[in-house]
Amino acid sequence: MTETPSIFSRIIAREIPADVVFENDRVIAFRDIAPKAPVHLLVVPKTEKYANVVELATGDAALLVEVVAVANQLAIDYSNGEFRLVFNTGESAGQTIFHVHAHMLGGQLAEGTLGD
Ligand code: AMP
After folding, report:
1. Domain CATH code at residue 100
2. Is 111 a member of any domain?
């Protein structure tokens, strides 16, 4: 479901409250409202131009690099520096908000289909 502006743009505009942990000119990060890990942050480019990570990688690779760097720093600041970075890409992969975002999952992660 595509919303304009996206929920994330409304958070950036402070129309919807969020627990913001990082912000600069290009990127914002806040706690996921339904955490799936002890530390679950969303790292979001402020632009609405890119619906998913493939579009972001193609359209602004430097911004994708910045998203990864912010996720890494937040994992250091809010967890033990180790993390899982997830970009759901497409509805059948679980993407519900079509404004590119990374899930930074840290802390003791539950066993799942990846990484164990
Ligand atoms: P995805 O399913 O990959 O598109 O991820 C969207 C994520 O946004 C989900 O994990 C939701 O829990 C989260 N989410 C939705 N609305 C909010 C909100 N208002 N504040 C924080 N996180 C949200």
Report:
1. 3.30.428.10
2. no
Number of neighbours of residue 54 by Cβ within 10 angstroms: 14
Mean of per-residue pLDDT scores for the chain = 94
pTM above 0.85, yes or no: yes
Would you say the CB of residue 76 lies under 6 angstroms from ligand 1?
A: no
DSSP state, residue 46: S
Domain holding 83, by residue range, is 7-106
E strand or H helix at 31: strand 27-31
CB burial string 18-35: b at 16+ within 10 A, e below? beebbeeeebbbbebeee
Q: Which of 32, 43, 100 best tests ligand 1's pocket when mutated (most atoms within 8 Å of CB)?
A: 32
